Amino acid sequence: MNYRIRRAIERYIQANGQQDTRDVIALFAKRFNTTKQRISGNISCMKCHEQSINIIPNKPHSIMY
Predict the structure, then answer these.
(1) pLDDT(58) > 90
(2) What's the pLDDT tens digit per position in 4-55?
């Protein structure tokens, strides 16, 4: 399931460009009917381990691309 979530996020970012991380987390938590914490963990995995996305730390919201 986590693999499907990460691939869906990756395709979404490629199709729609830069996104606010909070918006992406909320969208995919509803889409996959899971917790926001699980989506956030998958985004962290994509950034740290897979290096398939980048995140610009910005206040008040981070931007992922």
Answers:
(1) no
(2) 999 999 999 999 999 999 999 999 999 999 999 999 999 999 999 999 899 9
Which tokens belong to 35? 């917790």
| β-bridge partners, 63 | 20, 56
The answer to whether the CB of 25 falls within 8 A of the CB of 39 is yes
Token pair in block for residue 57? 């730390």
Whole-prediction pTM value? Answer: 0.88
Q: Which residues contact 42 (CB under 8 A, 6 or more apart)?
A: 2, 5, 6, 9
Rounded-to-integer distance, Cα 52 and Cα 59, Å: 23
Long-range contacts of 33-42 (CB under 8 A, 24+ apart): 34/1, 34/5, 38/2, 38/5, 39/5, 39/9, 42/2, 42/5, 42/6, 42/9
